[in-house]
Write a structure and sequence with these properties.
Helix 1 packs across helix 2. Helix content is about 25%, strand content about 30%. It is built from 8 helices and 21 strands. With about 325 residues, the chain is α+β, with helices and mostly antiparallel strands. It comes from Pseudonocardia eucalypti.
Length: about 325
């Protein structure tokens, strides 16, 4: 069963278990994706804020330049990526590739840069090549996730926040120069101090950082509280067991590339991480990509994920509408 409703400018089709869908139909006065995006910019953003995200099908996006033009038309300007947890390839116009992550491993639900003081309010994705198997970008309603998580777990994270510990190296994740936009130690230290990040240089030139953040924040438009973090995604217990065992063997349990904790530094149990991921899955909407698709995700209202996949896949990403949370 499905329903549809008309906004002043868009027909948004809502199907259970799938993201809201808009079918774009070029017209003589809107002959290309950029003109279409400009006409429906406000309606698209309002739909994403209401539902968490919206999938636009029919624009026929075909190359990075066209994607950058559409992203900028919708957003008014894109953000540079900072503090990324995985390597991205930059394209002209402020667009990036998807995070470099093993294709056979899923990226579980997360809110982009929720560990940074400045983070995007809006995420945009464009599919240039759909994987033949898997690879969907799912979204999960952050208000529903918050409401369905165990009350005692929510209360603790609301009180303490959450802690992210990172150990930067040149082997896994983003290297220093990419994550901070420079390899100059003084500049990195200045950035860390300005962004509530404790840091410690390691023998051999590595960097260990600790940042404590809110786990729940209010949506800037609706005022509704939303579960907003990467507690589960960046935790060791979300990793494939063989991958976790390998990383612990190579780096040691205290020096994993990234790990998350309760705000007081206490480790999370596997059961706690599993509960969070189970609630995410119960509230996930997903639709297989088709080449040319566009998706907008309100980064507070919804978390997003990436399924494991086989074959070739190219999905470009844009981050926009920067917001800033207060440091804990």
């Amino acid at each position: 069963m499905s329903t549809s409703f008309a906004s002043p400018t868009l027909d948004v089709r809502v199907h259970p278990g799938k993201p809201p869908l808009v079918l774009a139909q070029p017209t003589p006065d809107l002959p290309n994706p950029v003109s279409w995006a400009g006409r429906y910019r406000d309606a698209l953003r309002a739909t994403a804020a209401e539902h968490g995200g919206v999938l636009v099908r029919g624009l026929g996006l075909g190359n990075p330049g066209q994607v950058a033009a559409v992203f900028n038309e919708i957003s008014g300007g894109l953000m540079a990526d900072r503090e990324s947890f995985a390597t991205r390839r930059p394209f002209p116009g402020g667009v990036y590739s998807s995070s470099k992550w093993p294709a056979n491993q899923p990226m579980c639900m997360h809110h982009e840069l929720s560990y940074a003081l400045e983070f995007p309010g809006l995420m945009m994705f464009a599919c240039l090549q759909a994987a033949p198997t898997g690879g969907a970008t799912g979204i999960a309603d952050a208000q529903k996730v918050l409401a369905e998580l165990p009350a005692e777990l929510v209360a603790r994270f609301a009180d303490e926040g959450w802690l992210l510990v990172r150990n930067y190296n040149d082997d896994i994740g983003s290297p220093l120069a990419e994550a901070f936009g420079t390899d100059d130690r003084a500049t990195i230290e200045t950035y860390c101090r300005a962004n509530g990040i404790d840091f410690e240089w390691q023998p051999g030139g590595g960097l260990r950082t600790r940042q404590r953040r809110h786990a729940i924040i209010a949506h800037p438009i609706t005022g509704q509280d939303c579960w907003f973090n990467q507690i589960a995604f960046l935790n060791e217990w979300t990793l494939d067991p063989e991958v976790r065992e390998f990383l612990v063997d190579v780096y040691g349990p205290e020096s994993l590339p990234f790990n998350t904790y309760y705000g007081n530094g206490e480790p999370l149990t596997p059961d706690t991480v599993a509960v969070i991921n189970q609630v995410y899955e119960a509230n996930t909407a997903r639709e297989p990509w088709r080449p040319g698709d566009l998706m907008l995700v309100d980064n507070i209202r919804a978390a997003h994920s990436r399924e494991a996949y086989a074959g070739q896949r190219e999905v470009l990403v844009g981050m926009a509408s920067p917001l800033r949370m207060d440091a804990r």
